[in-house]
Specification:
Length: 552
């Protein structure tokens, strides 16, 4: 058990300012909830979730206390990458419903005071998109240049050594014309050529289509891959590679990622969304170190995304108080002055939080996500503490797992059906769902946890409620106040209001010395009553306990 005197350390840290009230935008105050639509709610008994299913569950989401829903792709798609291979950027796949269903979903979302954010996939289309069908049909087709075609060369006959993120070459030879096309992901996901002004126009028109229907923003997929150099230089070997990692990591990617053109594209998107009222938001997906990621905010004169996703806590190799605090402080320091932070702890591409963290830390993670300064994004079913589901080989659907079986890269385990209740298929569907249901669903579900005041779901609700009703937690400044190895403690402040958050990252008791500070406990992550309400002097934290304290 270690003790740190907070009062001594307090003086040494500068507070990082909160948002100024007059300028606070809805997306700064919001918590975003990610829905993987195939797995949220099936309304028509085909084992796959759909838009009407989401509409049916809106009351749950409003009651949970989230503010904005981000829905992963529901566009028409051959589903080779489960919707991230789009064959029409301005429609809904019949599997998910119709445009009328979408209009109803957005109206019902807005009626409950929530916002709706769509996925938008600029880097590639499906190979079944009419644009690509035309493009591949002949060398002189007007849409030839809408995609990236090159002649093979060298000993292996490929245009370059560039690799697909999902493994194998990023080039596929097309027999029709004898040229190769470039695909950063599956061969069924050819990359669009954003250097072509007609592509830009068509893709921005697709964005406009959904803005006109009332969407509140976009999560912009894989933006880091939008451009690659025109010159096809081979990428260098990664000296730190070992084959426990995906093949893609065997190279460094100076010519295919993080190109200046990516920023031009985001600026063009921002320019478009800013023509609409309501502060529509852009959230960009790019796995980058903080200094590179910060560039996606753009500048006040040439803004880009309002929320470039911050994945540093999602990719943290070791979940400890020190590691988390270090990342948070690095992030705060790297942010440009006009930038608003955000945090993501899990998503549909990564193993579930509950399966990544040391035992007992799910509740600490909830507190980390919902008490730090910045917009949190919460992945569906994380509010239940749901773990990865083991997928038997015959049920595997994710192309990443199918391409490299047994290596542990597959994404199916974190994409399984939402756990609603103890009825068959956890209330998700009336038939066997597309991916297996968590075997423990009869105990681990929304209904059971709703009835249990100490459940993980009850904790999430309490945290969301506190964050919403408390400006210090929502938009206040952030200041770390200790350097203990077992506890991460910080103060959020708005005006006179100061909230202390102290998080014990270990399975042993810990003590934090509050010095002269005193306060009242607002919430324990353990959701019980076994703590002393008034705290002063040495504050005890139980194993894996986080406390939120209103300071006097
Ligand atoms: C993004 C998505 C991922 C998808 C890929 C290709 O990384 O999050 O699910 O497979 O882009 O679109």
């Amino acid at each position: 058990m270690r003790i740190t005197n907070i009062a001594v350390i307090l003086a040494g840290f500068l507070a990082i300012t909160g948002a100024s009230k007059a300028e606070v935008k809805w997306w700064q105050k919001s918590t975003v909830y990610q829905i993987y639509p195939r797995s949220f709610q099936d309304s028509n008994g085909d084992g796959v979730g759909d838009l009407n299913g989401i509409t049916e569950r809106l009351d749950y989401l409003a009651d949970l206390g989230v503010d904005a829903l981000w829905i992963s792709p529901f566009y028409p798609s051959p589903m080779k990458d489960f919707g991230y291979d789009i064959s029409d950027f301005s429609n809904v796949d019949p599997l998910f419903g119709t445009l009328a269903d979408f209009d109803r979903l957005i109206a019902e979302t807005h009626r409950r005071g929530m916002r709706l954010i769509m996925d938008y996939v600029p880097n590639h289309s499906s190979d079944e998109h009419p644009w690509f069908k035309e493009s591949r049909s002949s060398l002189d087709n007007p849409k030839r240049d809408w995609y990236i075609w090159r002649d093979g060369r060298g000993t292996n006959g490929l245009p370059s050594n560039w690799l697909s993120v999902f493994g194998g070459s990023a080039w596929t030879l097309d027999q029709v014309t004898g040229q190769h096309y470039y695909h950063q992901f599956l061969k069924e996901q050819p990359d669009l050529n954003w250097r072509n002004p007609e592509v830009q126009k068509a893709m921005l028109a697709a964005m406009k289509f959904w803005l006109d229907r009332g969407v509140d923003g976009f999560r912009v997929d894989a933006i880091n891959h939008a451009f690659e150099t025109e010159e096809l230089k081979d990428e260098p070997l990664n000296p730190n590679y070992d084959d426990s990692k995906p093949e893609y990591d065997s190279l460094l990617h100076p010519y295919t990622t993080d190109q200046a053109g990516n920023h031009d594209v985001v600026r063009a998107m921002r320019n478009l969304v800013d023509q609409y009222d309501g502060d529509r938001v852009l959230i960009t997906e790019a796995y980058l170190p903080y200094d590179r990621q910060a560039l996606y905010y753009g500048t006040p004169a040439a803004p880009e995304a309002q929320l470039p996703f911050n994945f540093q806590l999602l990719d943290l190799p070791k979940w400890t108080a020190e590691a988390v605090a270090t990342k948070v402080n690095e992030y705060e320091a790297a942010l440009p002055p006009h930038a608003w932070p955000n945090y993501v702890l899990s998503n549909h591409d990564k193993p579930r939080l509950a399966s990544r963290l040391p035992g007992g830390q799910v509740r600490i993670a909830a507190m980390v996500l919902l008490t730090l300064r910045g917009t949190p994004t919460l992945y569906y079913a994380d509010e239940l503490g749901a773990p990865n589901v083991v997928i038997p080989p015959e049920r595997v659907r994710d192309p990443v797992e199918l391409k490299a079986p047994g290596k542990g890269f597959g994404r199916d385990p974190s994409r399984t059906p939402m756990l609603w209740d103890a009825s068959a298929y956890s209330g998700f569907s009336t038939v066997e769902p597309w991916l297996p249901v968590e075997p423990n669903f009869r105990a681990l579900n929304v209904a059971t946890q709703t009835d249990d005041p100490s459940s993980v779901l009850s904790l999430y609700k309490a945290l969301l409620d506190l964050r919403r009703s408390n400006a210090a937690l929502n938009i206040g400044s952030y200041k770390q106040i200790n350097t203990q190895s077992d506890v991460f403690a910080f103060i959020r402040q708005d005006g006179e209001k100061r909230i202390l958050v102290a998080l014990n990252f270990t399975a042993a008791d810990a003590v934090v010395d509050l010095g002269a500070l005193r306060g009242t406990v607002l919430l324990t992550s353990l959701m019980d009553h076994s703590f002393c309400n008034l705290v002063a002097g040495k504050m005890n934290l139980r194993a894996n306990e986080g406390l939120i304290v209103e300071l006097r």
